[in-house]
Design a protein that fits this description.
The protein has about 150 residues and is α+β, with helices and mostly antiparallel strands. Helix content is about 40%, strand content about 20%. The longest helix has 19 residues.
């Protein structure tokens, strides 16, 4: 990744950290789940409103580092309006990118919003920060747990 893109991606992360999108409690959520990273203390509650297999709305509350907050913010923008299957597929893509399993170029889909997190793969300790909200969303959609954790 060249420096121009690295700077652009850092600016995207900082903007979402300073001005998180969809940062609010959702009273009419159909799926709600707490996610925690006990190692660093990041914690988020993910709210999803799913109707007819579509993610009609998504929001989050909580606190964490810049990467975790920006990741949650971007996630809410990317999965809103998608089917449950599409949201889960985007989770897979995000996870493969931030863990360094695949490059952004490996995907035909429009992944420009999550591409900002590709550099996280260079810092393995930060992968859990970036993936916390995504794992929480993915588990919430399955409705089979009371909490998501990175451990």
């Amino acid at each position: 990744m060249d420096n121009e893109f690295r700077e652009l991606y850092q600016e995207i992360i900082m903007d979402h950290n300073r001005h998180p999108r969809n940062f609010r409690k959702m009273d009419d959520a159909t799926h709600v789940l707490d996610g925690r990273n006990p190692v660093c203390g990041d914690h988020y509650k993910i709210y999803l409103k799913v109707e007819d297999n579509n993610v009609e709305d998504v929001s989050f509350e909580g606190d964490g580092c810049a990467i975790s907050k920006a990741s949650a913010s971007v996630m809410t923008q990317v999965i809103k309006g998608k089917t449950v299957e599409e949201a889960k597929h985007l989770f897979d893509i995000f996870h493969e990118i931030v863990t360094g399993q695949k490059n952004i170029e490996d995907f035909d889909e429009d992944v420009h919003k999550i591409a900002a997190f590709a550099g996280v793969s260079e810092f393995p300790v930060r992968v859990k920060c970036a993936t916390l909200s995504w794992h929480t969303m993915n588990i919430a959609l399955d409705q089979d747990s009371k909490e998501a954790t990175t451990e």
